[in-house]
Amino acid sequence: MTSEHDMKGRISVLFAPEGEADAFIDNLRAYATQAAASDMCLYVDLYFTKHANKFLLVEMYKGDAVPHENEPLSAIFGALMPESRREFIYPVYSDPPMRRRPLTEPFDSAMFGGSRYIGDAPFGAFAAAYILPGKEEQFLGAIGRVGEKVSAKEPGFLYADMYRTDTPQRYLMVEVYASKAMLWGHQDFAHTKAFAQEKKQYEASKISAFTIRPAFSCGALARVHEEARC
User: Fold this and answer.
1) What is the phi/psi pair of residue 126, to 5°?
2) Contacts of 37 (CB under 8 A, 6+ apart)
3) H or E element: which one contains 48?
4) Distance between CA atoms of 223 and 43, rounded to whole angstroms?
5) Rounded to the nearest 10 degrees, how much is the dihedral formed by the CA atoms of 10, 187, 212, 81?
6) Residue 158 contacts residue 178 (beta carbons within 8 Å)
7) What is the number of domains present in the chain?
8) Position 201 pLDDT exceeds 60
9) Is 62 exposed, middle or buried (0-12, 13-18, 19+ CB in 10 A)?
10) What are the residues facing 13 on neighbouring strands?
11) Can you give the CATH number for the domain in which 158 is found?
12) Over the stretch 90-126, which tens digit does the pLDDT of each residue have?
């Protein structure tokens, strides 16, 4: 079994050139399929955002097997807009745990075709946080406590993954619910409101976030059913 300590990945916020989003998606699908064919790849997840040319790509590999820039992705990512950014990640927290992927719920409604933001399709958020030096242990403890309540009590919760980065005190999180309404409803629970107040004592700056919608997932630990994978 692969533990979180034997895993390394990369998160990429990608901006395709104007008018080239569809071709870029095709290239990302091909890249994800190729990556997932490797025994070292655990999962590759792609998310749409509310901007037609903006995407979130999450990759996770065993050990230190993340593809280098001079490998196949250079041809795909070479024409990206300059605001694109990429960084290495390391798993910190996952609910359901990594070993329990994939989920039992199919993500057919999140596949290509029709509107990218269908109201009853899976919907989530990507967030980045900088934590004050010396406050990381308390922050992660708070995340764990609220995560237990979210997974036990909140309708429509599908999954959440938190990662640390190579930048000190920087953490990234992906969380996904069964629909847009359920994501927004998450903010009304008492434990969510309490955490919103508690986290202020740990933050070095305000958490930045944007909404996402699952597009596809590949790999041994993909988040979706076989028929919905790329």
Assistant:
1) -115, 130
2) none
3) strand 41-48
4) 8
5) -70
6) yes
7) 1
8) yes
9) middle
10) 56, 85
11) 3.30.70.100
12) 999 887 654 445 544 433 333 333 344 445 678 899 9
